[in-house]
């Protein structure tokens, strides 16, 4: 990468640097290759480290770079297309569900979740924790909130905790007739728990998909799924699978 003078550029310095770095990623680096450290990069481009960090954060947000614990900043592979919805709506845990149940516990949900579920502020609900893996790497973590009255026959299930309990809750949930589901997507930052599960750093960009499952005219379950923004492109359609969407050409490692 050559040195570029940025002082006369009318746009923000970090944005111009982001463009220069992006071109270098296409022409000089391979997928998975580790970038030089911040001090060397800042010196090479003649910018402050704060400006460099802004450019690197923007490229991470765009899925061009990944920050990895104990490794550093590496060139990211093309984003994977991850299906999060199909025309045929279904309860979580169905036969074509790509998620893996991990655990289930009775917990008091956050106030905003309780309001959506129309439960009492101190009322516990079933919280099912699930994960989604693609191509051998974690791509999403989910918290699925289910009120007790959505699964009234669960008391007879002999599965006190863990993945077995989670699967039992999901089986009971499927007894309800699903009327519709509503999805919303927003950009967020990884919390400590999500970051640990997704092998990310706290504060890394994530895509948060909130799904409201409606039965009997009320919210029967609420899913809050956190996807890695650096590796995932969310798709809404009937494919139900994971496709590779190629962006600008990059060198294969």
From TrEMBL:
<keyword id="KW-0805">Transcription regulation</keyword>
<dbReference type="InterPro" id="IPR036390">
    <property type="entry name" value="WH_DNA-bd_sf"/>
</dbReference>
<dbReference type="Pfam" id="PF07702">
    <property type="entry name" value="UTRA"/>
</dbReference>
<dbReference type="InterPro" id="IPR011663">
    <property type="entry name" value="UTRA"/>
</dbReference>
<keyword id="KW-0804">Transcription</keyword>
<dbReference type="InterPro" id="IPR036388">
    <property type="entry name" value="WH-like_DNA-bd_sf"/>
</dbReference>
<protein>
    <submittedName>
        <fullName>GntR family transcriptional regulator</fullName>
    </submittedName>
</protein>
<dbReference type="InterPro" id="IPR028978">
    <property type="entry name" value="Chorismate_lyase_/UTRA_dom_sf"/>
</dbReference>
<keyword id="KW-0238">DNA-binding</keyword>
<dbReference type="InterPro" id="IPR000524">
    <property type="entry name" value="Tscrpt_reg_HTH_GntR"/>
</dbReference>
<dbReference type="Pfam" id="PF00392">
    <property type="entry name" value="GntR"/>
</dbReference>
<dbReference type="InterPro" id="IPR050679">
    <property type="entry name" value="Bact_HTH_transcr_reg"/>
</dbReference>
<feature type="domain" description="HTH gntR-type">
    <location>
        <begin position="11"/>
        <end position="78"/>
    </location>
</feature>
């Amino acid at each position: 990468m050559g040195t570029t003078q940025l002082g006369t550029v009318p746009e923000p310095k970090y944005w111009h640097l982001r463009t220069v770095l992006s071109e270098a990623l296409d022409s000089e680096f391979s997928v998975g290759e580790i970038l030089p450290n911040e001090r060397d990069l800042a010196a090479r481009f003649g910018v402050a480290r704060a400006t460099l960090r802004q450019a690197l954060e923007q490229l991470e947000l765009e899925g061009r770079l990944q920050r990895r614990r104990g490794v550093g900043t590496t060139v990211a592979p093309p984003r994977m297309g991850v299906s999060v919805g199909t025309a045929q709506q279904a309860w979580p845990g169905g036969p074509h569900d790509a998620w893996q149940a991990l655990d289930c516990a009775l917990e008091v949900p956050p106030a905003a979740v309780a309001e959506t579920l129309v439960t009492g502020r101190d009322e516990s609900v079933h919280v099912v924790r699930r994960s989604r893996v693609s191509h051998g790497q974690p791509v999403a973590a989910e918290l699925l909130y289910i009120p007790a009255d959505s699964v009234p026959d669960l008391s007879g299930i002999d599965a006190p905790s863990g993945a077995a309990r989670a699967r039992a809750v999901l089986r009971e949930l499927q007894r309800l007739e699903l009327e519709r589901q509503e999805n919303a997507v927003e950009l967020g930052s990884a919390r400590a728990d999500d970051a640990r599960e997704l092998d990310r750093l706290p504060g890394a960009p994530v895509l948060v998909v909130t799904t409201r499952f409606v039965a009997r005219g009320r919210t029967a379950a609420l899913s809050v799924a956190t996807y890695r923004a650096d590796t995932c492109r969310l798709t809404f359609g009937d494919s139900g699978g994971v496709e590779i969407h190629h962006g600008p050409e990059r060198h294969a490692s």
